[in-house]
Structures are given as structure tokens and as C-alpha cells.
Helix-turn-helix domain-containing protein (Caldanaerobacter subterraneus), 146 residues
Amino acid sequence: MDKKAKALELYLEGFKVVEIAQQLGISQPAVTKILKQFPEYHQEKERRKKENQEKARQWRNEYKKQKREQYDEEYEMLKKSHTPVLKRRKFSDEALIKSTILHYDYNKEKERLIFNENTGKKPADLPRSVYVHKNVLKQFRIPTRQ
């Protein structure tokens, strides 16, 4: 059996061009050049392409499904915890901090509330620190003598 027929036979059996080149002892470009002469090669290449696209689509769908399930589990855990679940709308810093006050520590020197990383990961919509002024959380304000 000559190399052309052998290359086509191996390709149709499912071997890759790299593997065929190794078996026949020729370069990969030479194998591709040989295979391009046959119409069966183009049909098989299209079939493999569609098969790979289908595998990729299934993988993406499975990945999205896993992420949704993970998100749902995390959401359920949040619902069960005592931390209020915030809906997707804008809250003022004051409202956000009041709802998560247990996650902040007060720094007297800087007159700031600073998020305590030991209580968990800081959500993106919460500020890392907040200056405590007369409009925000008056109970932390240091009384001034007049």
C-alpha cells in the first residue's frame, strides 16, 4: 500500500495529521498535501469540525449550568444567613453600612468605619471604609466639647 492510500486510511480511521506523519515517517505538511488530494479528506474534516463544535457547545452549556447551580447555592446560603439579601438597586453608603454594620470596625483615630476582612469577602457594592461624619452613623461620632 502506498503512502497516499495509507495516509487517507489512517485519517478516516480517526488519526490526527501529526500521528499519521509519525507513522509514515514524513512531515506534517506533506501529509496534509497528500490528504488534500482526496475529496473524502474534506468531508471527514468537515465532520470532525462539526463534531468539535458540538462538543464545545455541550461543554459551554454544562459550564453555564454548573455556574448557575453554584450561584443558586450561594444565594440560598445568603437567604438562610442573617445578612439581608440586597436587591439590585442603588443604596446610599449609609443604608449599605447600616445593613452590614457587623462587618465593619470603627477606627477612632481616623473616624472611619473600616471593613473587617475576617468577616468574609467584601461585596463589590460595599465601600472599604467610610468617614463617619454628622450625617452617617451618629452613634460612632466622637462627642466634641464646646
Notes: The longest strand covers residues 104-107. The chain has a mean pLDDT of 80. The chain has two domains: 3-86, 93-139. Residues 39-80 form the longest helix (42 residues).
